[in-house]
Design a protein that fits this description.
Heat Shock Protein 90; three-stranded parallel beta sheet; six-stranded antiparallel beta sheet; alpha+beta; 9 strands; 307 residues; 10 helices
Length: 307
Amino acid sequence: MIVNINNSDVGINNLSTLIRKLSFIFNYEGKNVPNCEFKITATKLDAVSALVIFKAFDFASKYSCLESPKANLNNILKLFSIYGIENLMKKLVNQEEADGLYNNLKPSKTADFFIAPHPINRESFKNKQDLENKYTQFIADYYQNICPELVQYFKTCICEIASNFLYHALEDNNSILMAQGNKKKIEIVCVDNSKGILTTLNPDNKDHFQVMRSAFQRGVTSKKDEFHCGTGLWYIEKIAQQLNGTLRVYSEDMLYVFKDGKVFVKKSPYWKGSIFYLKLNILKNTKIDDFFAKFNNPNKLDLFNTQ
């Protein structure tokens, strides 16, 4: 079996195609299927495509899906080097232990661009102060002279996304949250291979369209007994709406899209777990503070309770 991934398979608008090419891996758990070769010939990878490919290799390695898969490693490492995860990718392609490398991920920036990978696991997120001090502050510093009025909303989105993955991805301790941006936009991506939204929220409901749509409504939560109020995904979508942004969430066999003020929910190629992509535009004229004034608590984010 040869899996070809080229320029027409990557990018946020081609993500369904990429998932379709990789989803076979989830059927091979524990089977050690031989003679699989990956030819990744794309000339550039966006963050979401990079993490999707990364997590596919991670799943294959963790669950013994493939026996000694082949890959054009030199090109793959070059593509992943921009995100600072080439050493992790090398370990996964070679089916070697990579856990020790996750905590060495570090943000980096140039004058007009930043990349900030961060592991999503309970060791790295001991509390919300750890996330704010070690990760979101780096992003806040980047934007403090560009759009200081929007920094809190960026931080909130990152914390909410991280919180969702931390609480729900109990089967996956090797997820990475990636934030990247410049003076015009910020993009936040996270991918896991745990239980998806459908299974977590309402596993008995066969109407996946209904379950996926309801996940973004205010007050809907899978953890009512733990005092979660079900505002995280709703809040993120509202911020995207105020900043002319885009939100795309793939989970299991469904896709939820918010774009240009409209919501689309449709079937998707199967992905075990969830893929989260958020783009927020840097707008100079926004009334976002007025819109969210009644929802904000300036004293705390109140996102983490890992006890």
